[in-house]
Every structure is written in structure tokens, then in C-alpha cells.
Design brief:
Layout lengths: L25 E4 L5 E6 L5 E8 L13 H8 L12 H7 L3 E6 L4 E8 L3 H13 L5 H20 L6 H9 L13 H6 L2 H11 L5 E7 L3 H12 L22 E7 L6 E9 L4 H14 L5 H9 L3 E10 L3 E10 L5 H17 L4 H18 L3 H15 L4 H10 L3 H11 L5 E8 L7
Parallel strand pairs: 2-6, 7-11
Antiparallel strand pairs: 1-2, 3-5, 3-6, 4-5, 8-10, 8-11, 9-10
Helix pairs in contact: 3-8, 9-15, 11-15
């Protein structure tokens, strides 16, 4: 993630979002394929301009991993009309802030401005799309930036490589098998022409969605959008066709090492379906039930009551093509990693054979309703949700209707989904150990 801390004159205010209130929006396409989503809210004089490209780490050449994340940085380098180092100055001069994020499935850029600077935001994003300058000096500069980010966020962080190790073991053929930040060796080996080709293929209007949220006048905004984005040529149409993973039918094990830790970890990982499925949403509920908060089942049992673990977590990392369901724990005292796995299995077995209580079910519903409200409590959150629901789910109106899916999940479904995906024969068991332990292996 590219973080930018600026001296900003505006305060990003939360907009009112009472429970059940609909997020109104309008969406349409330009002739060049750019999808546009408009959400008008004149409650505060703030506007978000954002654009989501349907390109992430999974779209990379296996020999050139890290390109999508690299472009998150590279496309702040400048354009034909914006000099190197000038992007942030322009944003801050208008009282705004900006940022970008990349994951395996998409790349997202956004600016937050006082509403009278809307046109600046549109111009900036159209420049990024139409006139990027991809030259060696920028590549070399951002190469060092990305290397430093990897050192700080991954290589020198305790458990920083945990997810990367999970992915490379859990996925055999699908490109989720490598990390979003990618390989520094691949970036070093890449030519300028390869970076330019990546930009030409993926950073095109027909692979992008523009979102405007906040205080604006729709008719005038549409005219500006057409003026800034309409002339951008449509890119070549390409098809995404990723290899499919074979089901896991037998438990397998892996070991990874980390020089930054002293306490080992155990992780039980299951490959799960796309976040577009109903089952993925049920798995969200199961992870919340097991480890979200001090009163959750695994936390209370392993941390509070039995004092077997320093930390425990159940996470459903669901993505566009597949998900990762992971149970993670750090042992306390003389507790063994095998003992923690046994406790995992006991709780999963209960989910597979017994209905959770009505009180626990209602608590889950309340938690997801609260998450829904919080996700759409700011203009930034609404813009991001609109982008993700259109680009990744193919249904923008899920910003209003997805909560109904969660509300409709029954206790019986929770039991059925636990049986379907969380069998002990369907998982990777990975020990994540301090590096010095490897000397005795």
C-alpha cells in the first residue's frame, strides 16, 4: 500500500448513515468502455474521486510478479502534463489527500477534496490514464521504494511472510500462489518495455471504473467526465482465464521459518470459494463466531479459560476466485502446536455437528449489521464499496442488498458450510517457526 501523509486543510467527515438507508447511485458507460458510478451526497462539501482497475497480482506473468503493486507506485511518478514529484503538491494545494491500494484482484486510486476541487480530481485521474510517463528514472526510483516497503512491512516484521507462505503452499496452479508485493528479483529483471506493455494492456478505460461520491452537481459532473475521459482510446479486449485448483482431499503439512520471531505459530488453512458465493459469506460468519472479540469461542477457550494461547484468530480471506480460511494460534508456555490443532478441531467439530445457539446467531447478525453500517459511514467507504461491488462482484447494488444475504443465513447453513469446507482432510497444516529452529531440522 502506498501511504501519503499530507498537510491537509480539509477534515474528512463521516456522513450520516442510519440503519437501512439506501446508498443511491447512478451508473453508465462511456463509449470507450469506462464505467462510471455517481453517488451524490451534499451533506458536507467533500467529494471523492476514485478509479478502480480490474488488475491485481493474479494478472501478472509468473516470472514478473509484483507488477500490479509496482504500478500502484509508478503511476504517481507523473504524466506528460504533471512533472515528477508534482502529484502530491497539486493535491495538497487544493486541500486534498490521496492514496492507492493493490490486492490480488484489483488496483484502486482515490483522492478526497473539498467539493470545489472536483475538476482537479477528474483531471488527475484522466492524466494517469491517458498520459502516464513510464520511463527508466521512474522505474528505478519506485523500485527502491518498493524494496524498502517490503523490508519494512514484510521481511522485517514478525510473521510478515506468513500469508506468503500460506499462499505458495495452498495454491498449486492459480496465481494466488504468489504474494501481492511480488518478487524483487522479478522487478529487477524486468525491462522498461515490459512495464510499458503492462500499462498498455491493463490501464485502459474498458478495464476501469470511475467513482465520484459526495457533493457535486450531476449534470455538470457528467460533462466534465465526458470531456476528460471520453477522448481516451479504448484498449484491446482481453480474456481472463486462470487455472483451476484441484480440490484438497487429504491433509498435507508444510513448515516455514521466520528470523523475526521467537514464538512459533500453527496455521490450519482451507481453500474456500469466491467471495461472490453465499458459502463465502457463511464462512465470514463462522470466522466471526470463532475469534472476533474476547467473548468469541476460540479466544475465550484458548486465551482466557485454558490459557493455552497468547493469541488466536480465525480469518476468512475470501477473494474473487478463491478464498483462504485460516485458523491461527500462538502457543503459551509449554503448550504444543499439536495441542492447539486439537483445540481447533474440537471447535470445528462442534460447528459441524451442533447448531450454534439462537443467542449466538443473533449476536452474529448484530455484528454484521454493524459492520455494514460502518463500511458505508464515510464517503471514502461508500466510494470503495461501490468500486468493489461493481468491479469484483459484478453487482453494484450489493452495497444495499448484501446485508440481506447475511441476515438470511441460518444456523443450519452454518453447520452445513462447516461440514462442506472445514474437514480435516481438506487442509494445509503449517508450522511457522523461529529461524534458529531450522538448525536442528
Amino acid at each position: 500500500m502506498k501511504k501519503r501523509y499530507l498537510s491537509v486543510s480539509l477534515c474528512i467527515l463521516a456522513i450520516g448513515f442510519s440503519f437501512g438507508q439506501q446508498v443511491t447511485f447512478e451508473e453508465y458507460d462511456l463509449d470507450n468502455g469506462l464505467h462510471v458510478i455517481l453517488h451524490q451526497d451534499n451533506a458536507t462539501p467533500i467529494v471523492v474521486t476514485s478509479i478502480s482497475y480490474h488488475v491485481g497480482a493474479k494478472d501478472e506473468n509468473p516470472e514478473r510478479t509484483g507488477f500490479a503493486h509496482f504500478f500502484e507506485h509508478l503511476l504517481f511518478e507523473g504524466t506528460k502534463n504533471i512533472g515528477r514529484g508534482e502529484w502530491d503538491k497539486i493535491v495538497s494545494s487544493k486541500g486534498g489527500t490521496n492514496n492507492a491500494t493493490t490486492n490480488d484482484d484489483r488496483t484502486y486510486y482515490y483522492e478526497v477534496f473539498p467539493s470545489n476541487a472536483l475538476e482537479t480530481g477528474l483531471w488527475l485521474e484522466s492524466e494517469r490514464l491517458l498520459h502516464p510517463v513510464i520511463e527508466q528514472v521512474g522505474v528505478d526510483t519506485q523500485n527502491e521504494v518498493v524494496k524498502e516497503e517490503k523490508r519494512l512491512r514484510v521481511d522485517n516484521q514478525p510473521y510478515g511472510n506468513l500469508l506468503s507462505e500460506i499462499k505458495k503452499n495452498l495454491f498449486k496452479v492459480h496465481p494466488y500462489r504468489w504474494s501481492t508485493i511480488g518478487s524483487m528479483e522479478h522487478l529487477d529483471a524486468a525491462t522498461l518495455e515490459e512495464f510499458q506493455a503492462f500499462n498498455k494492456k491493463f490501464y485502459v478505460p474498458n478495464n476501469a471504473t470511475l467513482i465520484i461520491a459526495g457533493d457535486f452537481e450531476p449534470k455538470a459532473t457528467k460533462k466534465m467526465i465526458e470531456a476528460y475521459f471520453g477522448p481516451i482510446p479504448k484498449g484491446e479486449v482481453f480474456k481472463k482465464d486462470f487455472p483451476k485448483e484441484e480440490p484438497i482431499t487429504e491433509e498435507f503439512k508444510a513448515t516455514a521459518y521466520d528470523t523475526n520471531i521467537q514464538i512459533p505459530a500453527i496455521v490450519a488453512c482451507y481453500r474456500t470459494p469466491s467471495f461472490k458465493t453465499r458459502d463465502a459469506r457463511v464462512l465470514d460468519m463462522i470466522s466471526t463466531y470463532l475469534s472476533d472479540g474476547n467473548s468469541s469461542k476460540l479466544y475465550k477457550k484458548l486465551v482466557d479459560d485454558k490459557k493455552m494461547a497468547l493469541a488466536v484468530q480465525a480469518v476468512n480471506l475470501s477473494q474473487e476466485d478463491y478464498g483462504i480460511y485460516a485458523l491461527f494460534a500462538l502457543p503459551l508456555g509449554e503448550t504444543t502446536l499439536d495441542a492447539l490443532v486439537k483445540e481447533f478441531d474440537e471447535e470445528i467439530k462442534k460447528l459441524q455437528t451442533e447448531l450454534i445457539s439462537e443467542n449466538d446467531h443473533q449476536k452474529l447478525l448484530n455484528q454484521f449489521e454493524n459492520q455494514f453500517v460502518n463500511a458505508n459511514a464515510t464517503l471514502e467507504g461508500i466510494a470503495s464499496s461501490l468500486a468493489n461491488y461493481h468491479v469484483l462482484y459484478g453487482d453494484t447494488d450489493l452495497i444495499n442488498t448484501e446485508i440481506e444475504l447475511y441476515r438470511s443465513i441460518t444456523r443450519e447453513e452454518i453447520m452445513e458450510v462447516a461440514q462442506k469446507y472445514l474437514g480435516s482432510n481438506q487442509r494445509l497444516l503449517m508450522e511457522y517457526l523461529p529461524k534458529n529452529n531450522s538448525e536442528n531440522q
